[in-house]
Amino acid sequence: MDRSDHSRLVELLATRSARRGHFTLASGRQSTLYIDARLTTMSPEGLVLIGNLGLSAIRSAWEVDAVGGLTLGADPISYSIAYASALDGRSPLRAFTVRKEAKQHGTGKLLEGPFRPGDRVAIVEDVITTGGSALRAASAVKEAGGMVQGILALVDRQEGGREIIEQAGYAVLSLITAAEVIPRIPAAS
Question: Does residue 9 lie within any of the structural domains?
Fold first, then answer.
């Protein structure tokens, strides 16, 4: 992992995406830290950094054909990794999206995009808190005939989610931890 790119990504997350206060998270938990990763993952600089760092992390750990996760948080991360893979001279990775529920019309698919049964997959997650979203996505991929190689998180909040995912039998990589972001959050003015 390129340390300068890693440092720039931590800085982006700290200044754009992280806030201190009192928040109710998607998991229902209360927290004094909120990370809206989309403010980073959907920015041009964030997309470039995440694509390159995410691809490097995946390629160093697993052989995969595709990347994807639960919409909406995983979408820009998956797409940026797929794009970066098309530029690195090796076999490109396909990106897909896992819907929160199957479509009620058309084909009724839960997975969208060029996912294929038999694909070796890295599940992508923006922020791991409880691990629930990543496990939901992994379950959907397995049910569709994919083989989950591991879970890649942009940020691990370090609140037990990683351990829950690992107990379910999946390897977990995170690009950034909450401990790296917290000291770099600007003081409120």
Answer: no
